[in-house]
Design a protein that fits this description.
5 helices; single chain
Length: 126
């Protein structure tokens, strides 16, 4: 793996770890049970994605807590109608970030496709 690919893989792995923690925390504060269940599902899938990237990087990363504190707080301040489109955009943006490595590493293609589905799942909660 070249240096640029490794950089993308490490950044992607970190992003997945951060999203996992964010969704776990969000599931605990949302008012709607369907939203909570969706966020639990997304957390689980983000964890699976982190493992895909870890298999390439062989580096153990810990989630950064900023998103897991900030996003649930934003939920309480601005509500889901404003927050969920922002979360969905983050999922769609992640999909684009994986594009440079999809051709070389087929396992990343499923992760990329899942990110689009995740964005759709979050928007469907509205």
């Amino acid at each position: 793996m070249n240096k640029e690919d490794m950089k993308i893989m490490l950044k992607s792995q970190q992003g997945e770890m951060d999203a996992l923690l964010m969704y776990e925390k969000l599931a605990k504060v949302v008012k709607d049970k369907k939203d909570a269940e969706t966020f639990k599902t997304l957390a689980k899938e983000e964890g699976q994605h982190a493992v895909v990237f870890k298999n390439f990087t062989n580096v153990v990363l810990k989630p950064k807590k900023a998103k897991s504190i900030f996003i649930p707080l934003l939920y309480k301040i601005i509500g889901k109608k404003k927050l969920y489109p922002m979360i969905a955009k983050g999922e769609y943006d992640a999909e684009k970030k994986y594009e440079p490595v999809v051709a070389k590493y087929k396992e990343v293609e499923k992760v990329k496709n899942d990110e689009h589905r995740h964005g759709d799942m979050v928007l469907a909660l509205l």
